[in-house]
Design a protein that fits this description.
Blueprint (H helix, E strand, L loop, with lengths): L30 H7 L9 H12 L8 E6 L18 H4 L4 E3 L6 E3 L3 H5 L5 E6 L6 H10 L15 H10 L11 E4 L18 E3 L18 H24 L4 H17 L1 H6 L7 H7 L3 H15 L3 E5 L20 H25 L6 E6 L3 E2 L4 E4 L13 E4 L2 E2 L3 E7 L7 E2 L1 E2 L6 E3 L4 H12 L7 E3 L5 E3 L12
Length: 484
């Protein structure tokens, strides 16, 4: 990274000062498009980039930094039907599911989560999260970036916490791992992003079904000897034209590309990087434990990446495993809410439980923090509307079925690892689950907790926005004491 991008003080992450601030490469080629070009893009690989690559690959490994996995439930999970049941509420609120005891005395979940109930002494549940935006865009932006606006916007105004974490980590010196700092495994991408940080600090995105037999990650590892020879020819070509190009590069744009070329080259040439993305290196029992399905293998891949050196991994539990509309947005027009929860519960319960057990068994419970959440909960009061179409967890069009709508005033999220005390239930909602009433936490508290774990001074760090104005990464929140 250009020295002009380094912070002036230990507590200040300045905004981008290079041509990549708008997320584009020379000629308008975006970072993700650049990565997709694979070998074809290495006519642009500089000799200094190669040297930096070799230096980074051979550097001694430092003490492992703290890392975070965020498991996102797009659309919002019903808190009443999972982690915050209300068995004493009337039938129009409580839903059809019975409650079960957990490994923590006096704490109950619903019958949908038997595996997690047995492991409740290994994680903590925050039952009193709330925010103020009722729409998916604004709700997601509040929780992921701290934007207080309640209006839905097509693009985020502020960078999400993952991009901020990636940016601030990049200021701490060169990475010793050949892997990217921030990886999205089928990540949330609709209402979040790096905003004024630019695409440079967004995730390296992995898409597809990790459970598919032929699943591979493009641009990871050279496949054949011909690929190696082709890469060698392109590196040689770049060396021959490098001086001429830079003579005309008065703005230093080629130099600013160097960090991305280096990362791309590392991913292509590093056996360690290739191995980290290869789920076939896991034994069958471990893969079975997570579940031989998209969600289970996503969480297993997330664990592998953190263990290999990735700082931040985000993954979204969406798609066909959710039901007809591919998310957790269980309006009656989309899903029969209770059929949808039953439909996805076993896969969800197994995958999350496996991750809880796995990080403890592998000694990652201090280094790695995991949070499982959506942007809000669902309405405590059940409503009934005609379905808009038949499919998994939805009756035929026109059939009246139950649903729960958006509910930002109270919802739950799950936290484990990160050195936090397990077995806690933090906060509470009222008798019908309508409002958080005890130990109320908001988006800025959520963000501060994540930044604290990553070692980021959230009370003092600012990042310059597009206009050059220093913008705090957290406005009024504090790390949740029970979770640090």
């Amino acid at each position: 990274m250009n020295s002009s991008n380094k912070p002036n003080t230990h507590s200040r992450c300045q905004g981008p000062q290079n041509p990549l601030a708008n997320g584009a490469f020379a000629g308008g080629l975006g970072r993700r498009s650049f990565m997709r070009f694979g070998l074809a893009g290495f006519a642009n690989l500089s000799l200094p980039g190669m040297l930096k690559l070799r230096a980074a690959s051979s550097a001694p490994r430092q003490e492992r930094k703290k890392s975070v996995i965020m498991v996102w439930q797009p659309g919002g999970c019903s808190h009443i039907d999972t982690y915050d049941p209300k068995p004493q509420a009337s039938s129009e609120y409580r839903g059809p599911f019975s409650t079960i005891s957990t490994a923590v005395p006096g704490v109950q979940f619903t019958e949908l989560l038997p595996r997690q109930a047995k492991l409740a002494n290994k994680f903590s549940v925050l039952r009193s999260m709330r925010q103020s935006a009722a729409g998916h865009p604004a709700g997601s932006m509040q929780l992921l970036s701290g934007d207080p606006d309640t209006r839905d916007k097509p693009q985020p105004k502020y960078p999400d916490w993952m991009s901020v974490g990636n940016y601030c980590r990049s200021m701490q010196g060169p990475r010793t791992s050949p892997l990217p700092s921030f990886v999205g495994v089928n990540p949330p991408t609709t209402y979040n992003g790096p905003a004024y940080l630019g695409d440079a600090y967004g995730p390296f995105i992995v898409t597809g079904d990790p459970n598919a037999p032929q699943f591979t990650v493009p641009n990871i590892g050279l496949k054949t000897e011909e690929d190696s020879r082709r890469l060698g020819r392109r590196v040689s070509l770049r060396e021959n034209i490098d001086n001429l190009q830079r003579a005309f590069d008065v703005k230093g744009e080629l130099e600013s590309l160097d960090q991305f070329e280096t990362q791309a080259m590392t991913l292509l040439t590093s056996p360690e990087a290739k191995a980290a993305f290869d789920l076939n290196q896991e034994d069958d029992r471990t893969r079975d434990r997570y579940g031989r399905n998209t969600w289970g293998q996503q969480l297993l891949l997330a664990r592998r990446l953190v263990e290999a050196g990735v700082d931040i991994v985000t993954t979204s539990l969406r798609g066909p495993l959710c039901g007809r509309v591919n998310n957790w947005d269980d309006h009656a027009v989309n899903h029969h809410v209770f059929d949808a929860l039953r439909f996805r519960a076993d896969v969800y319960d197994q995958a999350v439980s496996a991750l809880v057990e796995d990080i403890h068994e592998r000694g990652l419970e201090e280094q790695l923090l995991v949070v499982v959440t959506g942007e809000f909960g669902r309405t405590p009061k059940i409503n009934y509307q005609p379905s808009t179409g038949a499919g998994n967890a939805s009756a035929a069009a026109g059939t009246v079925q139950p649903g729960r709508d958006h509910w930002p005033r109270a919802f739950s999220n799950l936290w484990f690892g990160g050195g936090i005390e397990p077995g806690q239930v933090i906060g509470a909602t009222d008798k019908r689950g309508e409002d958080s009433i005890e130990r109320i936490c908001g988006p800025d508290d959520f963000l501060a907790t994540l930044y604290h774990h990553l070692g980021i001074d959230y009370e003092n760090v600012t990042i310059e926005d597009f206009s050059g104005r220093p913008t705090p990464i957290v406005n009024h929140g504090h790390a949740i004491a029970e979770l640090i």
